[in-house]
């Protein structure tokens, strides 16, 4: 599917169009307001499958900026700007995920250390959500209309075991109307994700009879079996080209220190730039688990039922790649030259995986500012320079959509 032809007007000329200039000025003049909205959103917990409260807050924010947003059946927040010209309803989607990978059990409170904000999710994806809010608010403040329709969305299900359910739903809903996708994830504008890293997330459970750690000594132990399996897994050769990774991420099992567990489980994250390599890794994982269970059963000193092994695929992210000559990438490069941004293309695992896997032009970019320690309790974000990231998004979007008739120059506070 081809992306729309880029705007013939250069970014420097585009930025002088009255409504576009007004939007750029609005972004530059509302830095503190944007940061405050970022804090408001991140202090609402939004773990995977628990994004509803943050979604409602985002909906209210967009509504206060003049949009008529809705929450769809999957839980995504969606606001639509129809095309200024009559057409076939083609749209460009701009999306930022709502969920946070690591959410504390208690209230979330953003704290300040100098210029930095610290809280789980403050960058991933507080920075992306703030950029989305700023972009949508600037559109309304400057009364911008576009040649193609624009959809702003806060989507669910990007983190953890969400399996990209939010973006999958959006892509399915817009179908052939969807011409390009811009995903806003994180902060830094110096990276453009144009290749999608495929992943598979697997849960393995082993069950056995269990028993007393002394009286039933010699009964096969599910944790021991998984330990043997993990030892085999980490010995599996990993490809460097295509780059691939294997990580055992969660280990659970046992009920008491003096009891042989009756069940144990692990979760495994497999990633690769190649679907074929993922097939090989998943086969190796299954073989390692089967051999680990067999070895534990054969070492048992007492007659007992065989260990039972269960595999459950928790999610799969597809691979994909944006063509180097894509008009979407060309638009970003044009805007970056105008703004003095020097960005490198890279591979990543993001919401952009879904459209890229379907041949829909898509990129994932940061919303501006800087951040670090994502997916940890010490995640931080510094909003300095954020406006350049948001202005880049605005100009890129208008470069590929075109500025439609009816855009005004007025700006509301």
Structure, described:
The protein is an alpha+beta fold. The chain folds into two domains: 11-196 and 319-401, 3-Layer(aba) Sandwich (Aminopeptidase), CATH 3.40.630.10; 198-317, Alpha-Beta Plaits (2-Layer Sandwich), CATH 3.30.70. The protein has helices spanning 11-14, 18-29, 31-42, 52-64, 126-141, 165-174, 222-233, 275-299, 327-339, 353-357, 386-401, and strands spanning 70-71, 77-81, 91-97, 111-113, 116-118, 149-155, 178-184, 191-196, 198-207, 211-212, 244-253, 259-260, 263-272, 308-317, 320-321, 344-348, 362-365, 370-372, 380-382. The strands form four sheets. Strands 1, 2, 3, 6, 7, 8, 15, 16 and 17 form a nine-stranded mixed β-sheet that branches. Strands 4-5-19-18 form a four-stranded antiparallel β-sheet, with no helix packed on it. Strands 11-13-9-14 form a four-stranded antiparallel β-sheet. Helix 2 crosses helix 5, helix 2 (18-29) packs antiparallel against helix 11 (386-401) and helix 7 (222-233) crosses helix 8 (275-299). The protein starts with 10 loop residues before the first helix and ends in a 12-residue tail after the last helix. The model is unreliable at 1-7 and 406-413 (pLDDT under 50).
In short:
By secondary structure, the protein is of the alpha+beta class. The chain has eleven helices and 19 strands.
Number of helices: 11
Let me know the number of strands. 19
CATH class of the largest domain: Alpha Beta
Going by helix content, strand content and strand pairing, the class is alpha+beta
The residue-averaged pLDDT reads 93
Gross morphology: elongated
Query: What helical percentage do the residues reach?
Result: 25-40%
| Oligomer class | single chain
Q: Please state roughly what percent of the residues sit in beta strands, choosing from under 5%, 5-15%, 15-25%, 25-35%, 35-45% or over 45%.
A: 15-25%
Order of helices and strands: HHHHEEEEEHEHEEEEHEEEHEEHEHEEEH
Determine Rg (CA atoms, Å). 24 Å
Distance between the termini: 39 Å
List low-confidence stretches: 1-7, 406-413
CATH fold-level name of the largest domain: Aminopeptidase
Largest sheet: 9 strands, mixed
Count the domains: 2
User: Based on the structure given, which CATH architecture of the largest domain is correct?
Assistant: 3-Layer(aba) Sandwich
- CATH homolog superfamily of the largest domain: Zn peptidases
